[in-house]
Here is the input.
Amino acid sequence: MGMVDYLQVNNLQKLYYVNNSKIKAVDDVTFNVKAGEVFGLLGPNGAGKTSIIKCICGLLDYDGGDIIVNGYSMKNKRRKGLRHISAVLEGNRNIYWRMTVKENLEFFSGINGISSSKVKERINYLINQFQLQQQKDTVVNKLSRGMKQKVAIAISLIANKDIILLDEPTLGLDVSMSHEMRSILRGIAKDENKTILLSTHDMNVVEATCDRLIIINKGKIIAKDTVDNLKSLFNKEIYKVTLMEGPKNQLKERLKKVAQLLNYQKQAENTSLLLQLDNGNQLIEIFQLFKEEGISLIAIEKVTKNLEGIFIDLLKEEQHEILL
Ligand SMILES: Nc1ncnc2c1ncn2[C@@H]1O[C@H](COP(=O)(O)OP(=O)(O)OP(=O)(O)O)[C@@H](O)[C@H]1O
Here is the structure.
């Protein structure tokens, strides 16, 4: 083991046929997820996230490429592969609504063949992890939507499989429940060395939970990276500068020597510039330039880009290179 990726998705293709036409819901998607890693599938509605997850957990056949689960191809070794997978899909929760939280956990541990000595220990562990102490004897039907989602995810972990697939695990949760869910998921992946693949359309969920991600749109991967890299790639120091008057050509040329001039707009009363700097020190040089040219500064503000902005840009441009 060690180096083996628990989940490999290689050149996956999934087609749907609707009214004699073909929809490429998943188009040549390749990624792998290691043990202990939380991996995000990020994309807008219809991007193909659910289709990918359903292909991985054997609910859908695929049309091209392959999915390898702990060494088993889901094309011809599906049953062996499935032994390593637990999935929580939206609207398809394996919960018994009339049983209590604890009864559900016991039931699903039973049918998944865990020895009884370990069952109690694991149930207690999950009840603690998911902070379900107060709800453990409540009938699931009486719980809030967020609580039900927590229970569904706890159940997916009771059998102690290697790979957990979660389709939109924070959808419809309130802010505090969503935060709690993110930290539970991260904790479980790290503590138990699980491979967690989650889909979401929410960049904040990815930012708080995932190690790596792919961004998909219309079935295609448009970015694949670590969350950190993707953030730093786009976290350049960009400043929006407003000047009292239009810069003379000389100033423009001088500015270009110090920083990257991304945008320059002359309005009736003033001029705004968008400058990209490599470090804060360049800002001092820029101020010096304005002073030497006798130009008054009206305003300067740092333009920060969070992942949300990056995501929106990527969807717009559908490529990795864009900076603004
Ligand atoms: N059973 C189906 N028959 C025909 N087309 C389908 C079917 N299921 C999904 N699609 C289409 O495939 C594409 C990808 O859908 P999918 O549900 O995988 O996307 P998604 O990223 O999960 O989006 P959402 O967040 O809206 O569920 C969409 O264009 C969708 O309309």
